[in-house]
Amino acid sequence: MQQLCKAVCESFELCIIFPSKSTMMKKFPLLFIFFSITFFNDSFGQITSPDTVKVGVYVTSIHDIDFKQKEYALQLWLWLKYKNKEFDFEKNLEIPMAKSVEKSFSTIDTSDGQVYLQMKLQCVMKDTWRIGNFPFDRQTLRFSIENSQYDSKSLIFVADTVGNHFDPRFTLRGWSIDSCILATGVRAYETGFGDESLSKPHTEYSAFRLRLSITRDAGGIFWKMFLGMYIAFLIAYVCFYIHADGMDSRFSLSVGSLFAVIGNKYIIDSSLPESTSFTLVDTLHGLTLFSILIIISATAYSLLLVKKNQLEKAKRFDMRTAQIVLFLYVIANIYFIVQANTN
Predict the structure, then answer these.
(1) Domain count, the chain
(2) Which residue did the predictor score with more confidence, 10 or 301?
(3) Is residue 204 located within the same domain as residue 79?
(4) Fewer CB within 10 Å, N side or C side of the chain?
């Protein structure tokens, strides 16, 4: 490059001192090529090189997790460092999955030729929950930001990965935090947002994403939700040990247990979002209802044997059926619970 510059300067001096026709034709092309390459590189770099925005977050609180409404509250510090003042993230900051955003604190430092913006946000986030294994569920809380005015051709995000990204002192009641991951990428929109100059309705915006993986501490809540169901099953199971003379009592207890399980399921479903898939809650309640139905059917068969004066046969049938039903019910519960806890 130095030799090229030297040659250009010499040619330029010669053209000034000896402005002959042959010299002009021989030397000026070199000068023209030099300035054309320089101009092309500068122009091309400005078009294809988006500005970099460095982003970092620090989560201070997560609370009010509402499964029914599919939302939760998130409080965090957010900071951005960039050189192009036109980005103006105070006005152009967009949080796509937020139901509401409240800015409680904001400060800007424009020294050292760059903008350093720091703000504290309180957001109510909307998200989808995976309730298939509830209450042994694992959830991913997601937070992302974009610039509403500048697409990925103008800016790209770079994650500030130094230090922790959440306060290890805060505890999320009933949950444990597994991981906190920062990532950047591009979010595509299949629309031009009314821009008729685009050849096809497709735009892309740079996105900064935070993924917080949490696991529910299910021990206590499991027994709170399913204890009534298991007691109802045991009440129906006790019917096998009632004497054949008390068939009316056996039927009453079994049918009462059946309705108790149905009521328990409705109570649990009222606190969960609607789901089209078969969840662990549905599986355990369905298993219990089917087991109670077997108990009622077994009671009906025992009643038939009693009416035939086959009391001993009815007693043996009750004992065998009781052992089989209890064994299969316990094994099936253990299997489904372990499977949900390991997935």
Answers:
(1) 3
(2) 301
(3) yes
(4) N
Please give the distance of CA 248 from its chain centroid, rounded to a whole number: 52
Quickly tell me which residue has 């054949």 as its tokens. Answer: 244
Q: Which domain holds residue 289?
A: 219-342
Q: pTM for this one?
A: 0.75
User: Which parts of the chain fold into alpha helices (H)?
Assistant: 2-17, 21-48, 89-92, 218-238, 247-269, 280-307, 311-342
pLDDT in tens, 197-242: 888 888 899 999 999 999 988 888 999 999 999 999 999 999 898 8
Same domain, 94 and 197: yes
Whole-angstrom Cα distance, residue 202 to residue 220? 49
Whole-angstrom Cα distance, residue 296 to residue 290?
10
pLDDT averaged over every residue in the chain: 84
Both 241 and 324 in one domain: the answer is yes
CA torsion 213→216→217→220, rounded to 10°?
170
Phi, psi of 246 (to 5 degrees): -105, 45
Tell me, yes or no, whether 264 and 203 share the same domain: no
Cα 201 to the center of its chain, rounded Å: 28
CB 101 within 8 A of CB 123: yes
pLDDT tens track for 30-89: 444 444 444 445 444 445 588 999 999 999 999 888 888 889 999 999 999 999 999 999
CA distances from 152 to 47, 53, 110, 157, 205 (A): 12, 11, 23, 9, 5
